[in-house]
Amino acid sequence: MQPVLNQLYFSDRYNELLDSAGSSRPHWQAMIEQLQHEEPAVMRKRIEAVQRQIRDNGVTYNVYADTHGVQRPWDLDVLPLIIPQEEWQHIAASVAQRATLLNQILLDIYGPQQLLSSGQLPPGLIYGHNGFLTPCVGMSHDDDVALHSYAVDIARAPNGQWWVVSDRTQAPTGAGYALENRTIISSAFPELFRDLNIERLSGFFASMRDSLAHWGHRVAARQAAAVPGITPLGAGEPPLVVILTPGPYNETYHEQSFLAGYLGYPLVQGSDLTVRNGVVWLKTIAGLQPVHAIVRRIDDDYCDPLELNAESLLGVAGLTEVARCGHVLIANALGANLLQSGALLGFLPGLCQSLLGEDLRMPSVATWWCGEPTALAYVIANLDFLVIKPAYPQVQSSPIFGEDLNATQKETLIAKLRAQPDHYIAQERVDISHAPVLVSHHQPQLSSLAVSVRVYAFATPNGYAVMPGGLARVASGKDDRVVTMQRGGTSKDTWVLSSHSQAPFSLLRKTTSSKDLVRENTYLSSRMAENLFWYGRYCVRHLQKAIMLRATIRTLLDYSAEARAGEWPTMQGLCQWFALLPTGDDEEDEDVLWQPWSDDEIEPLLIKAVFAQQSSSLATSVQQLFQQAFNLRERISNDHWRTVNQLSRQFITRHPHPSLQDAMSQIELAINHFVTLTGFAMDWMTRDLGWRFMSLGRRIERLQFMCMLLSRALEMPQHSNLEWLLQVTNNLVTYRARYASQPEWLPVLDLLLTDAHNPNSIVFQIKGLVKYLQEMDAQDSAGGIATELNDCWQSLMALDPDQTFAPGNMTLAAWLDQTYTVTLHLSDRLSLRFFSYTSMHASSGY
């Protein structure tokens, strides 16, 4: 191992692993010893286990314009970044000081503005920034905290000194990824993690939750005093804290949903919230619920289309006014984006002395704001040694390294700087430290790449709590001078050593008495209920689609054209209904089967129905299901989510020239996964209101399919083979056990229509739907939604099987058509009633 370690040393950079003599640093010694004594195969399995856990857990990071889209796996190196305790104490104290300083600056800029009037901050630097939000001037904040969540990117210079590269103050991201990294890497090195007494992260998140609850109670008291009808929170009653997300296409949506599940907060979009009577309300199935605190992941100006950005479709109209009234806590306060400007970095040492009376503990990378004439002159004279960056977010420009420019390019850049000097900053180029990474090949190899660390702090009533560790990020290659995940970088877990053992800690709140017991999710949002409803429908729809494809292909392979003549047009027609096969030339009548295909014609169409990237194929359907599950990430278990991921990845793999047998193999795997998802839904999920909506979706979808299936089947000749009908409804085994004979119309239709003990029968679906709908009607005193379906049930049971359970029977066909129509109306009524909130009163139902 030692010759390999020597290859990792670079004299022009600080090496996190090796000292100047090429020996491993003391705090890395235990890790190095483990690596030295492990066989390459063991380490390779460790790497594969980490990658498999990321894939199975669906940990993703969406790089814009990446072909992987929302399924791009999170990149995590198996080796952690290790930092000794005494060094971390300096980092933590520096980060807490910096957060305190920036909070004071933010309060002043939107308050008395003494820093501007005294000249300590140039007015042009503040007012030229489009992140300065005039509507937010004069807002007050509990305990004078406007910057609740703070993150800072730090890197180590060649002399070993940690420097601040940038501040993240708007809506800092990555804390959830740091937590996921810890979960995965600590399980990869369980003994080492335990023996080194690595600092735990859960205490930081507990401080975060306790602080939000503390301020949330204050907000709740103000709401109750100002708005009639709002009941004050009890002493032990938690306030309603939500995480406001831009939506599933945001690059860190997975992290947001993970944090929401971990902290127990609803993950909401702007459409889930509304402002009424000066309060923000969450639209839930139980009615409007007052929101006390919002942890936002939306940019400042997008939070309120009424006062901040009229083009925003992500925010909540009127949110700014509610914040002004003190009726909601927003973390971070609107306008915090202003502090992310690199132009502030050069002013912080003086401001630290002025506001805190002490020196800045951790310096920033040397920064010049070109809006100052002396700074501009220095930048132009030393361009070869500097990096030019935009000062404001409205300036669209990537970092420009002066050393990369030829003479003409330098002249062009200098002209830009002189034309709009206040739009640019310049920073000293620093060769940041390298950390070891384990490259996964046939033979795992150690390499060395540039590394930076994002450290997190959160405000508490007693100062800032700092996460003991953070999100370490590694450059994507040896020549990369910018460390960022958006450019394909890799992450690392950050281990902070401790001198004492770490006790396990749970973030879950303790239940101290029976009054703390909870039996229902009070804060089920309308959008979440709708997502659960459609997730249930998609699970059943795509399973039925796969089963129908399997039955059709099996019939094609197992029977001659003559033997399948009776049922073959019906099977093709059902495939058309699923849009798996094309319909005739008349696009307005999709039910018309213009002609049966020959075997040579239909085979490639069936293969295409499985693999093709078209709107109705099985492959596309699986991706739709994945997306729907992605919207529910915080509501489903890890095992459930892992199965969805495995199903999705199965259809991402390309098959250049698939055969009918390949199609069958793919279908069988998909059906197995769908059946597993059914088990999770029916056996592993609590029977709460969310589960009921998902079950409503499942039963409506199955009922529609059964009505269409039997309606088409009744058109078949009397002596058709009914075995495929029992196969696609999963009733063949039951039928054979009962009758031990070839399927006949009367017993088949009895089994599929009126057998209340058969979970695949029509009456079973109707009974369940009526039961759930009546429970909901009783819950919100608005009955009637189940009446039509109940009438269908009664009319079915009134039919005489001997007279109507036969092919070509018009009475039964009419009943099936009517019931199908009722399910369409039912779906629409559920949407209007539960998924679009219109009531003006918080306590009223839908």
TrEMBL record:
<protein>
    <submittedName>
        <fullName>Circularly permuted type 2 ATP-grasp protein</fullName>
    </submittedName>
</protein>
<dbReference type="InterPro" id="IPR051680">
    <property type="entry name" value="ATP-dep_Glu-Cys_Ligase-2"/>
</dbReference>
<dbReference type="InterPro" id="IPR025841">
    <property type="entry name" value="CP_ATPgrasp_2"/>
</dbReference>
<feature type="domain" description="DUF403">
    <location>
        <begin position="524"/>
        <end position="835"/>
    </location>
</feature>
<dbReference type="InterPro" id="IPR007296">
    <property type="entry name" value="DUF403"/>
</dbReference>
<dbReference type="Pfam" id="PF04168">
    <property type="entry name" value="Alpha-E"/>
</dbReference>
<dbReference type="Pfam" id="PF14403">
    <property type="entry name" value="CP_ATPgrasp_2"/>
</dbReference>
<feature type="domain" description="Circularly permuted ATP-grasp type 2">
    <location>
        <begin position="80"/>
        <end position="475"/>
    </location>
</feature>
